[in-house]
Design a protein that fits this description.
globular; Rossmann fold; 7-stranded parallel sheet; two-stranded parallel ribbon; alpha/beta; binds uridine-5'-diphosphate
Amino acid sequence: MKRILITGAAGFLGSHLCDRFHGEGFHVIAMDNLITGDIRNIEHLFSEERFEFYHHDISKFVHVPGKLDYILHFASPASPIDYLKIPIQTLKVGSLGTHNLLGLARVKSSRILVASTSEVYGDPTVHPQTEEYRGNVNPVGPRGVYDEAKRFQEAITMAYHTYHGLETRIARIFNTYGPRMRLNDGRVLPAFIGQALRGEDLTVFGDGSQTRSFCYMDDLIEGIYRLLMSDCADPVNIGNPDEISILDFAQEILKLTGASQQIIFKELPTDDPLQRQPDIGLAKKILNWSPKIDRAEGLKRTYAYFQSLSEEELYKKEHNDFEKYKS
Ligand code: UDP
């Protein structure tokens, strides 16, 4: 039986990866320090035989007994609000945490896939972004802690591949959404859905002309699965190229939720990328992968998920106070 370690396992993507690999018959070893992750996302797996959970911070030495065939490194705060709250931990998990996992992968002869991000392109001057584009990142801006940690992560992962012959994979993940997102991490989709559910106005930052391209999580998970099983050590963009302005996106959410609120405009955050769209030519070619779920369908499913939560569950999605970890 194949054994896989998934870090950030209680997070939005990590928990869906646990489900996918468990469903594929893997023995899943889930790890999370639960700062931004939510144990409820994986609670349903606790009674399963092929599932175990370690409450651990991977910035510290990581030990896993037994053989390990694969490692998926998905531990990191992943929203601007989160990494502004815990900038040092964000830097540490992308750098020290990645180093620890690469060391573990070496000892265990595991194949490791690291979750990188479109943020390595910063505020891009090339559009859409291809893997060759080297980015436009402000290292000392508010997003620098995330962007530079992820750039370092790619560098050290490639170094382990080149110098130690480790089997490595690098996924550059673009904006992704779906069930289990937290409602209070400041990301645009949960922000808008949370506002619609609470009957508040939708807050568009700037004039809303900045663009993003949103990928539904099922498509993303399939892309990650295929990349892990491929033989490509170079970074690969995984995302949905269907680009939309944030203002149009807000209007789509209002239409979907039938909410009668207004759109209000707030200041554009520093270094907020003006445009973002993945070029997925490489993923199409080498993984035979492209997204299948369009935004209308993905948003419908996501909204249905949030609507299905009880008041208590919704409250918990909105209140995840990790201020106490701020050290
Ligand atoms: N945004 C917005 N209103 C919100 C939250 C976000 O207009 O309440 C904008 C944000 O300024 C950015 C885009 O939505 O231009 C996507 O933001 P998000 O934090 O989801 O991710 P990013 O792609 O910027 O990392």
